Amino acid sequence: MSSEAELTDFLTLEEIDRDGALLEGIADVYGSSRADFLRGAAFASTAVLLGLGRPAVASASPKQDVGILQFDLVFEYLQSTFYLQAVRDRTVAGMKPEKQRWAHVLGAHELAHVAILRDVLGPKARKKPFFNFHGVTESESAFTRTAVAMEDLTVALLGGQAPHFSNPALTSAVFSLLTTEARHAAWARRLSGARPVAGAFDEPKTLNQVGRVVRSTRFIAARPRTGRRGNPNYTG
Amino acid sequence: MFLGRTLVAGGAFALGGLGFAAASERGAAAAPSPEQDVRILNFLLRLEYAQQALYQEAVATDALRGELHEFAEVCGDQDAEHVDALRALVGDDAQAKPTFDFGDAVRSRGRFTAAALTLEETASAAYIGQAANLTKDRLPDVARIVAVEARHAAWIRAIAGRNPAPHAADPAKTVQQVMKTLARTGFVERG
After folding, report:
1. Taking CA atoms, what residue in A is nearest to B70?
2. For A25-51, how does the pLDDT look when each residue is reduced to its tens digit (9 = 90+)?
3. Which ipTM value was assigned to this complex?
4. What domains appear along chain B, each with residue ranges and CATH number?
């Protein structure tokens, strides 16, 4: 399991994405040249978090920690697929430059979050579900509106869960993801003409509350079939 | 290897006037305790005081216009609420508000933007750096605040024409790093 890469401050997405599942998705959307670029792109700050991952924290953590991380992982799958789908639908290409940059940066960050959580969870990591965005990623206004709601919801999710890890290193790592999601939310709100910050405190939501919202979107179409990769009939 | 990277750099060091047993970037120097909470919350309080004072004074000098003015007004009010919340958590041991001298940062739009960006980024990283050191009793309160600090940081970066979210996972800063940054600004006169 041990390799030099674990000890460097700069892990590339390729090093994070050990089974290649993420990069497959990127090449699909961006074409292979962009995928090559991303493959080599250093995720410097994520490397700090990835130090947590080996051996997978999941094998040494209480059930509750693993449960929270699995839930967060599904959420990050949802977000990363959402942004990639908007790129694939050419919705992002039709937006003004700053907004394009926003969508690309967020998509890349959410992919990195997927990679981090998969790495932390190890073999226990949930597989990616099938998503269906019901056309939301095809219109700029619906895409933007949904992105704002989703980013604010992620802040509420991570803010609610970060304090509950029994492993303090996980709390710390999830704080780093929480603030990143808060930046995404602020950026999304500003681009949509809303004030980047609503109140002085970001109120948390429970897993149940977040689960209810996610179910109401019907974005998660089905659980993944196990034991199979390749090109199943799903979005992203 | 387990947690190695994050914890090996630990080790307490005393920090000048704060008498602060500080933690490594992502590891606890000492196990969380109510006493350590007080020291950490006072440290974070200091950063909130600085931000709130910068915004309040900049709004008062009437140097800001447009979105920058809105930013200072909104964030000034919110950071004032953070000050109140942290003071309430610490109780009688809450540190008093230091005296600040922001110089041109409250008169020039460019300097104000740079100062706000530094303080917001520093605060966000400071909260992250202390996440592992707080007791479970205090974490929920701090989590409600840190996300707002990150929103402030993203907002001022956007106004400045910078990428609002430059990292896939935001970096943490140690107490020592934070205090060094704060000292370098020269904003804290006394306290």
Report:
1. A195
2. 566 666 655 555 555 444 444 444 555
3. 0.87
4. 32-190 (1.20.1260)
